[in-house]
Design goal:
By secondary structure, the chain is an alpha+beta fold. It has helices spanning 106-121, 126-146, 149-154, 156-165, 173-179, 184-195, 199-217, 222-228, 234-245, 249-259, and strands spanning 7-16, 25-27, 31-32, 35-40, 44-49, 52-56, 60-64, 67-68, 72-78, 82-89, 98-101. The strands form 3 sheets. A 5-stranded antiparallel sheet has the order 1-10-4-7-11, covered by helices on one side.
Length: 260
């Protein structure tokens, strides 16, 4: 994919639900009007695009280039949810469609959710903030491919523990560093180099990401979700949610309903 380009327009950002289409096979015709960047949160599908056969699954990003195509069909094996960003740029980003696995990078899924909530909020300045977030997503994708695997492996024990238990308990910096057999300052520096944020903010981001999923289910109250996501109280949860997502949990639910 091109390393330098200018986003000239965001046309639309939609969240596609599990029940959006009634049949397993969906045909989208022979024209892609805008570049599409799609984050898949759940479900599995086979995408037939030109002469390519692409497989999508949870925590994958699919890119489709703008223009004419011989074929664009999607066969869904397991229905899921995704966020689709349609945009234009000043040059072709890639001559071919592609799918990348970003399961190891929790930040990207959270960024797509924040981009969606910003776009549907339609608050003053939402468009420019949305463009900024889309650039942030591309920066994260580019950075993710440039970080040496050996650096990621050094903090892998801490990452495994965080992802396993972040809904159950809190973690101290000393505990995370100790499990990786390194000093706190070095661990924090390496963590921020890889993820762009501190371990504390990363864990809060995981919780907010999970809270968004629970809010979309519309089965729990905000207070229940605060407890399920291991926040100390609902007021702290609401403040953190608004700080990260730009809107309150209740507003997020309302905007999600209106986008269906």
């Amino acid at each position: 994919m091109e390393e330098k380009f200018v986003i000239t327009e965001i046309k639309r950002i939609v969240m596609v639900g599990k029940n959006e289409y009634s049949t397993p096979m969906i045909s989208f015709g022979h024209t892609v009007n805008h570049n599409e960047l799609i984050f898949h949160f759940s479900g599995q599908a086979t995408v037939f695009f030109d002469d390519l056969v692409l497989e999508t699954k949870p925590n994958t990003i699919r890119f489709l280039p703008q223009g004419e195509t011989k074929r664009y069909d999607v066969l869904r094996h397991d229905r899921g949810e995704c966020i689709d960003v349609c945009f234009s740029a000043d040059r072709p980003l890639s001559p071919k469609a592609f799918v990348i696995d970003v399961a190891h990078n929790e930040k990207l899924g959270a960024l797509f959710k924040k981009l969606f909530s910003t776009w549907v909020s339609k608050k003053e300045g939402y468009y420019f903030e949305s463009v900024s977030l889309l650039y942030h997503i591309f920066a994260e994708m580019q950075k993710d491919t440039s970080i040496p695997k050996r650096h990621k492996s050094k903090i892998a024990p801490a990452m495994d523990m965080i992802h396993s238990d972040f809904l159950k308990r809190d973690f101290s910096l000393s505990e995370l560093a100790a499990i990786c057999k390194m000093g706190e300052s070095y661990f924090q520096k390496l963590f921020k180099e890889i993820h762009g944020i501190s371990p504390k903010k990363y864990i809060i981001q995981l919780k907010i990401n999970h809270a968004c999923d629970l809010l979309r289910l519309e089965r729990y109250t905000v207070t229940q979700i605060a407890e399920l996501c291991n926040f100390s109280d609902v007021y702290f949860f609401s403040r953190q949610f608004k700080e990260y997502m730009g809107i309150t949990p209740t507003q997020f639910v309302n905007k999600y309903k209106s986008s269906k």
